[in-house]
Each structure stands twice: as structure tokens, then as C-alpha cells.
Design a protein that fits this description.
The protein is of the alpha+beta class and about 190 residues long. The chain contains five helices and nine strands, in the order βααβββαβαββββα. Strands 1, 2, 3, 4, 5, 6, 7, 8 and 9 form a nine-stranded mixed β-sheet that branches. α1 runs antiparallel to α2 and α2 crosses α5. The radius of gyration is 16 Å and the shape is globular.
């Protein structure tokens, strides 16, 4: 397996991997595109075209030059401070439970740390992400922006983290745009 930065030519493969990874998952976002792909596949495309996108923090995992996984961190905020949000993290079902997701997360966290980022926030399974150093976001003074998902908000401080970094978490605009698309479509 090779983990490398995402290239513009990877967009279709990333969409396919993300759609496959979230298909049928009980926690996936509802489809908003006519192709029926889970909303996470659309979200990656929305993120890619938004100012929150940081190309240095988008990675793919490849096996024999085939994209099998993807992770991205984009710009978010806690209070007035810039932070990152991780996700979606996607691994094709044929490659899950083989360490691909963990390797992608470690790669993006290392890259974020090298860029001097202070904190990474995500919404995900606490049992999975706690193994990767994430803690419940409120333990670090980060207030979720969606109370319904509060127990899934987690954060990982990086080298530049300061305990004074506290406040309400604000997702990038594409997250709200995806919710609006789903509401418009009645899902």
C-alpha cells in the first residue's frame, strides 16, 4: 500500500471509494445526487471546490496503483481560531479491517502537525478514533455545532495546541450545504 497526496485525476476514484465505503452504513448521509451515492461522496466534491480545502491534507491509499482509501482535513473553526475537521475517511469495503484507515489518519495527522495546525476535530465512532488519540471534544473545551451528534464529536490536539483554544466548533460551509441539499430533497 502507498499513501500519497490526492491528485486532481483521483476525483472519480475517490468518489467511488467513498460511495462504496458508506453504502448501507447506518450512519451515512442520505444520497443527494441522482446516482444514489451516500452524501459523503457528494461532500468530498463540495469540499474540494470550497475555500476550506487544503490540498496538502487530502490523501489516498493505493494498492497496485488503484485508489482504495481516502482521507481529508479541511479548514474549520473553534471560536475565532482556525482548526481542522477530519472527514470523510473512506476505505473501500474490500480493504477494510487491514489498517488502511488508521494509516490514512496517521498520515493526515502528521501532515497537519507539520503544517503547524493546533487541533483536529471530527464526528465519528469514539471506539475507533480513541485508538488514534482522539478524545471527546468537550474534554478540550470544544462545543459541538450539532447537539444531536454531540457524543460523536472528538478532537485530537497536535503540537501547536494551546489549552486556551476553546469554544464552539464551526464546520466548513459544505457540511451545511450537504444538509440543505438533503432537506431540499426531503431526505
Amino acid at each position: 500500500m502507498l499513501i500519497r497526496r490526492e491528485l486532481p485525476t483521483d476525483a472519480a476514484a475517490v468518489r467511488a471509494v467513498t460511495a462504496a465505503a458508506f453504502a448501507g452504513a447506518p450512519y451515512s448521509a442520505p444520497p443527494v445526487e441522482p446516482d444514489g451515492a451516500p452524501g459523503e461522496a457528494t461532500l468530498v466534491g463540495l469540499l474540494r471546490t470550497d475555500p476550506c480545502w487544503i490540498p496538502e491534507l487530502a490523501f489516498v491509499a493505493c494498492v497496485d496503483d488503484v485508489v482504495t482509501g481516502h482521507v481529508v482535513c479541511t479548514r474549520a473553526r473553534v471560536g475565532d481560531a482556525p482548526v481542522l475537521v477530519l472527514g470523510p475517511l473512506s476505505v473501500h469495503p474490500d480493504h477494510q479491517a487491514r489498517g488502511v484507515g488508521s494509516a490514512l489518519v496517521h498520515t493526515v495527522l502528521g501532515a497537519a502537525d507539520a503544517l503547524g495546525e493546533p487541533l483536529v476535530v471530527l464526528v465519528g465512532d469514539p471506539a475507533y478514533y480513541s485508538r488514534l488519540g482522539f478524545v471527546p471534544a468537550p474534554e478540550l473545551g470544544v462545543e459541538p455545532d450539532d447537539a444531536a451528534l454531540a457524543r460523536f464529536y472528538q478532537a485530537r490536539p497536535l503540537t501547536a495546541y494551546e489549552p486556551s483554544l476553546r469554544g464552539r466548533f464551526e464546520s466548513p460551509a459544505p457540511f451545511a450545504a450537504l444538509e440543505a441539499m438533503a432537506a431540499r430533497d426531503g431526505v
